[in-house]
Amino acid sequence: MAYQGVPFALGLHEVAEGCHAYLQPDGGWGLSNAGLVVGDGVSLLVDTLFDLDLTAAMLSAMADATSTAPIGTVVNTHANGDHCYGNQLVADREIIASRAAAEEMKLVPPAMMAKLNAAPGEVGELFRSFFGDFRFDDIEPTAPTRTFEGRLEVDVGGRAIELIEVGPAHTNGDTIVVVPDTRTVFTGDILFNGGAPIVWAGPLENWIAACDLMLGMDVETVVPGHGPVTDKAGVVAVRDYLTTVLGAAREHHANGVDAFDAARQILREMQGNAATRDLREFGRIAVNVDAVYRCTDTGYETPNVIEQFRRMAEIESRAARG
Questions:
Q1: b/e per residue, 84-110, with b = 16+ CB within 10 A?
Q2: Cβ-contact 81, 200 below 8 angstroms
Q3: For residues 213 and 41, what is the distance between their CA atoms, to the nearest angstrom?
Q4: pLDDT band at 3 (very low <50, low <70, confident <90, very high)
Q5: What angle do CA 164, 81, 14 make, to 5 degrees?
Q6: Alpha-carbon distance 289 to 257, whole Å?
Q7: How far apart, in Å, do the first and last CA atoms of the chain sit?
Q8: Residue 126: is its pLDDT beyond 50?
Q9: Residue 319's pLDDT band (boundaries 50, 70, 90)?
Q10: Into how many domains does the chain fold?
Q11: Which of 184, 254, 273, 308 is within CB 3.0–4.6 Å of 221 for a Cys-Cys bond?
Q12: Which of 176, 20, 2 minimizes the C-alpha distance to 11?
């Protein structure tokens, strides 16, 4: 089944033989995708979701596919909660992540997100504007049971699945999941389709290299961490976005321009470009330029996460007001 036949609709979709994508429109903040690879008598789950209700609904949607091939292994592609907070519901399975991702999961537990959503005043209003639709209160952090560095091959009922660590990029420990026999790759948040990528860790060069790695693979179907299923054209679009941001941010940094001012200038240029003007979550440019400055200048002080979200919200609010 070619990716063109996969509608961007909520639910489980077979994208190749025995390979399924669980999609959550519109792919914005917290609305991530997951994957299921079905082997002979056993399956592998790629990522859980942002809260227990969403993860339970996903597992229910997978019930027909897993009735004769139960999930035996879970892979968390990275540490962001929308790809691992649901681990509690699969705690009795083997859960694999890169060593760096496993360490990073400790830094932002669900209780922290619950506290930010419940905070009084402007901080609470800010975080609820991003994450108010999700419920973090009852989540028990569930860590990976197995970690790796570099590459790891996993047998899933006779199917050889390749886990390739490509971080630090989006986060400190990003992993892509390759299914060679169907020319399919589950990218985690190394790919956003329809929304701007966000560089929490960097450097951008690593992320660009991860895109080039996928473009050099024999893959046809690409399941992004957010947005519709795509092919290599989606990978090219993300690589081009990151390359543009990297070059422009370096130039502004060399000219002594403040990072937030540089972000707004680069965004104006991007919104004049047909390839990038319609990206959702375009306020992420503030975090992406900040990542370039941080990786370029060891003396640069990164704003705290509350300020980063405030800047993203400000950019998008100003754009909405015209």
A1: bbbbbbbeebebbbbbbbbebbeebbb
A2: no
A3: 31
A4: low
A5: 60
A6: 11
A7: 42
A8: yes
A9: confident
A10: 1
A11: 184
A12: 20
Note whether 101 and 130 are within 8 A (CB).
Answer: no
Domain that holds residue 161: 3-321
Residue 1 has pLDDT above 60, yes or no: no
**Can you give the CATH number for the domain in which 216 is found?**
3.60.15.10
* pLDDT > 90? residue 274: no
Residue 61: per-residue pLDDT: 98
- Report phi then psi at 84, rounded to 5: -150, -10
Q: What is the mean pLDDT of the chain?
A: 96
| Start-end of H helices in the chain | 52-61, 63-66, 99-104, 110-118, 121-131, 204-215, 232-254, 259-270, 285-296, 305-321
Query: In 3D, which of 26, 1, 23 has the Cα closest to residue 12?
Result: 23
Report how far residue 102's alpha carbon sits from residue 15's, in angstroms, rounded to the nearest whole number.
29
Residue 220: what pLDDT? 97
One DSSP character per residue, 239-250 reads HHHHHHHHHHHH
Q: In what order do the strands lie in the sheet with 151-156?
A: 151-156, 159-165, 175-179, 184-186, 221-223
| pLDDT (tens digit per residue) in 144-182 | 999 999 999 999 999 999 999 999 999 999 999 999 999
Identify the residue whose tokens are 């993203």. 312
| Predicted pLDDT at 318 | 82
Residue with tokens 């292994």: 73
Note whether 59 and 137 are within 8 A (CB).
no
**C-alpha to C-alpha distance for 112 and 107, rounded to whole angstroms:** 9
- Average pLDDT (264-283) is 92
